[in-house]
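Example 499, ligand nicotinamide-adenine-dinucleotide.
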Amino acid sequence: MQELTHYVNGVHIKGTSNRFGDVLNPATGEVQGKCPLSTTAEVETAIEIAAAAQPAWASVNPQRRSRVMMKFVDLLNRDMQKLAEVLSREHGKTLPDAAGDVQRGLEVVEFCMGAPHHLKGEFTDSAGPGIDMYSMKQPLGVCAGITPFNFPAMIPMWMFAPAIVCGNAFILKPSERNPSVPLMLVELLEEAGLPKGILQVVNGDKEAVDAILHNQTVQSVSFVGSTPIAEYIYATGCANGKRVQCFGGAKNHMIIMPDADLDQAADALVGSGYGAAGERCMAISVAVPVGDETADKLIKKLIPRVEALKIGPYTSGEDVDFGPVITAASKANIENLVQTGIDQGASLVVDGRGFKLQGYEDGFFVGAHLFDNVTTDMDIYKKEIFGPVLSTVRAKTYEEAIQMAIDHEYGNGTSIFTRDGDTARDFSNRINIGMVGVNVPIPVPLAYHTFGGWKKSMFGDLNQHGPDAFKFFTRTKTITSRWPSGIKEGGEFSIPVME
Ligand code: NAD
């Protein structure tokens, strides 16, 4: 069994805590690796190294920093299949989906190549007699990121690419469930020319996270994961004076209007509800057809599609729609919630219970489930299931449907399927959710826009990637300079005003 490492100051190092997390192959249930869990002292050492390395990196001009990103993109493309294979083995998602995970991160790196433009400051010539005024965007120093298991390539790249190209050093604490891809990414960045110490990986659990949160050198913390941990990290990081952005859980509704193309809507629901076994924060987990006629027709179209879904290990190649979930505990949690749905009166119209795959009996496979007649007081409606379970909540009217999404505590993504532009516009304007799709089921913004939810799905002010990333990872300094000939003639004692 492989003992994984941390990556500190340009080298892989073994953990010293003698504490490890199991890295599983979710398809077989086997433990394939041991992930070292950092001590506070190990995290502090990495932070000190980062702080020492960062000023020299910040003084490299932005264009040269961007060139490291350019080279990194080449290397990601070169190693795409290798990265996808390792990612699938530790996560369980299919190979094409794993390559998509790397690709979506790569696109953020591409966006970061434009750093010289994004870091340009502002300048006012002759703001007063002999006075120029300009603003600079300076790096924060040492930044840190804590990432979830479900996108082990994309989400670390969302954070470290903009942080680094802005001139910061970055400490990455990836999910202890699948740390191998993050370790490969830091190697590739150094191959691309990044100096050692600028990106380091410290593996770990709560102890490592707390070491980051309480360290005075760390200036910012970026987090993606479940809402309770997001709330904890936001509160603790802010209390310790850091800039913090935390992205949490989700319950994404899709409204299906009576005039929608129902085949298109059914295909969209199946892809977005069951892709990656539902382990996506932008998965659609609630279908809201408007009117009983729409609901009946939609359910009729969904049932054969859901029953036909192919479930298997990533090694089966393209012939699989989704793989196992991440752990036995996650599988048990999903199965318990399904049982709760039945107990609370929802109709299980596609029953994926008891799904077994020959040769993979110990894998964490969960069959595809479809519920109809779910109501908003049920646990399967209120809680994030994070599994291949789609709930249908019937709404009588558009107003009831939109109000349902407005009232839900999560606000990550949503979408509406309709042929009516007026309804789509009204929905986009009134909904209190961060990312909205119109006839698009997974409205994940591209790298040059920002990604972020509202309500209990996001804590903080600035989103991931896009222009917000350059704001989050820099501080603005504004300089007022005067070079008059008579500067030595004496001081001015009243505040300068514009007359
Ligand atoms: P998680 O919250 O269990 O773990 C995320 C990170 O937090 C990991 O690095 C983990 O080591 C760390 N962590 C766990 N417990 C901790 C504790 N008590 N104290 C400090 N740190 C702790 O999340 P997960 O299971 O890895 O990921 C799934 C969740 O992430 C889902 O809720 C999903 O919706 C969410 N997610 C959200 C987004 C988004 O952009 N909003 C994107 C992807 C995933």
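Summary: The chain has two domains: 2-248+457-480, 252-438.
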